[in-house]
Amino acid sequence: MSCPEILPDHVLSLLKTSKYLHLATCSKPECIPSVSLMNYTYISPDRVYVPKGAEHSSSDRCHFIIMATQRDTEKYENIIQNPQVSVLIHDWVTAKKLSLRKSSMSNTPTPAEPAQVDPEQQNPDHPSRLLNLLQELNQSELSQMSATLRGYAEHLDTSSDEFDYYEKELLKANPDARVYTRGENVSVVKVKLVNAKVSDRENNTKFYD
């Protein structure tokens, strides 16, 4: 079970900065797919868990994603039956900026705004302002990038040091994930990434194995 030696910088940046990803699992033998929105943390090769007294080996030099879930869920059952999973990450930053931009355009002008501004230009429905928004939308859509990462998921033993290590790493990045890591019904899942498919703004696709 090999892993990609190199992932492009923009994918690594997304993995490090995004709060959520979409996790795809599939039951076996029925092959019924399921998709879940998950918070997670990315573990680079230099941050993987190493037992006390051991040293990094070549098999440790992989990229991992850590998530937490309840055991009485469909995705957990799917992972136990079929550890092959996929995750989707996407750059939503530009979309968020556009949403804020659109919201600001819809606000009613305040008296403090310059009197010389054409009242029609202040109207969010004015053609020139709508055209500007559409142009920004088109440009931003072209600049967005998404990546599909395939991997193998492993449920960690709750009594192990590895569980404790990755739970702490997950909670550092996502304090609100604590609800998924407490109690007898919890599972911390480690996904070892094995390849990546990246689509760029021109709809070109590159594979990284």
Automatic annotation (TrEMBL):
Entry GO CC: cytoplasm; nucleus
Region span, Disordered: 103-127
Domain Pyridoxamine 5'-phosphate oxidase N-terminal as annotated: residue spans: 8-166
Record Pfam families: PNPOx_N
InterPro entries hit by this protein: PMP_oxidase-like, Pyridox_Oxase_N, Split_barrel_FMN-bd
Organism superkingdom: Eukaryota
Protein name: LADA_0C12442g1_1
Originating organism: Lachancea dasiensis
Lineage: Eukaryota, Fungi, Dikarya, Ascomycota, Saccharomycotina
